[in-house]
Design goal:
344 residues, three-stranded antiparallel beta sheet, binds iron/sulfur cluster
């Protein structure tokens, strides 16, 4: 097993837009659109962080023996939508800030390299992140944006050897991450038989999104990401309807965008539920039937999925699964795997 470097990123749910069931807007949005915003966040994070904590997901992909690296994509394009830390210049470990908490052992400002990031862009503690107090680093997924920016957008020029490009590269990375996340979900939707009626639309938007990711850094920085996201989200909502329509029953929209923090739903029949943007932190879903659910943007940190059946559920990522708890009896979609930390 090669040594790896993993990384983190922060999202915040767009709770306002979630209040409208018919809104085509994306149900989560990045907390930061640019490096400038990240810097501003760093300056005030000590007071601000606590207030947003209930609304954030710290999603991190980890490349260790403990947690296999996978994303919820199961077609040929997936190779480009998985983090490949070996070919990334440690972007998430530099660009993004973190605050001392249960997830991180100390504070770090955005735009400064994590002290654990080595000169070869690998994490010096990657095998012991949880033990060292960096659990937040284990649940991040860049969807392949790191290597895309490092090797394609900047053609292998790294920010340490070329400090004049560092700031721009750090601004491009979060935008690329959003685009790759959209591609991940779109490709997942395209791989479903039930979405056949919209395969043409999905293919068109995938090609459009891929073309955008190939633009120059300066062109990427002026993209209207919210507008593109709205177009993508329209198709993802249709996908959700088609998938959940198989089993949808009255009342299944209750969880949509809602806080279910600490909810006691052991053994519940939740088939076809929309958990889009829902706060499911520390909820008990053990032995629940969660087939054909939509989990886009759902915060599953410390949720108990022991024995739960999530077969056929969509827009669920390995990072979300890694942040939850479960056991060997949890049934996951085939592209996801049981994290090793679930099985003592
Ligand atoms: S501890 Fe630092 S270098 Fe290691 S994965 Fe986390 S942010 Fe990256």
């Amino acid at each position: 097993m090669r040594s790896g470097r993993s990384c983190f990123f922060i999202f915040i749910r767009n709770l306002e837009s979630e209040s409208s069931a018919t809104s085509p807007s994306w149900k989560i949005k990045p907390l930061f659109q640019s490096f400038k915003e990240i810097s501003r966040f760093s300056a005030v994070k000590k007071t601000f962080y606590a207030s947003i904590t209930p609304y954030i997901i710290l999603i991190r992909n980890i490349e260790t023996e403990e947690v296999p690296r996978m994303t919820d994509v199961d077609n040929s394009k997936s190779i480009n939508l998985r983090a490949d830390c070996e070919n990334c210049f440690g972007l998430c470990c530099v660009v993004l800030p973190y605050a001392k908490s249960a997830d991180f052992a100390f504070d770090k400002n955005g735009g400064t390299a994590c002290p654990n990031l080595q000169s070869d862009y690998r994490c010096g503690i990657h095998k012991n992140l949880r033990e060292k107090g960096f659990r937040g680093c284990t649940v991040y997924e860049c969807f392949g944006a790191g290597q895309k920016v490092s090797q394609i957008t900047y053609k292998g020029k790294d920010w340490r050897q070329n400090p004049e490009i560092a700031r721009e590269m750090f601004e491009v990375f979060p935008i690329m991450q959003q685009l790759h996340e959209m591609l991940c979900y779109l490709n997942k939707a395209l791989g479903l038989e039930v979405t056949k009626p919209i395969h043409g639309d999905l293919q068109n938007v995938i090609e459009e999104t891929e073309a955008i990711t190939a633009l120059s850094p300066k062109a990427i920085l002026v993209l209207d990401i919210p507008m593109h996201r709205a177009k993508v989200n329209e198709l993802l909502l249709k996908t959700s309807e088609l998938v959940r329509g198989k089993v949808k029953q009255n009342g299944r929209e209750l969880a949509k965008g809602r806080s279910l923090i600490g909810a006691k739903l052991k053994g519940a029949d939740l088939r076809g539920s929309s958990f889009r943007g829902a706060l499911l932190i520390a909820s008990n879903f053990s032995d629940s039937d969660m087939r054909y659910c939509d989990f886009i943007g759902a915060d599953l940190r410390d949720a108990d999925l022991s024995g739960a059946d999530l077969t056929g559920s969509i827009f669920l990522t390995q990072a979300q699964i890694n942040s939850a708890n479960g056991d060997k009896n949890t049934k996951l979609p085939p592209s996801l795997c049981i994290p090793v930390h679930w099985v003592p």
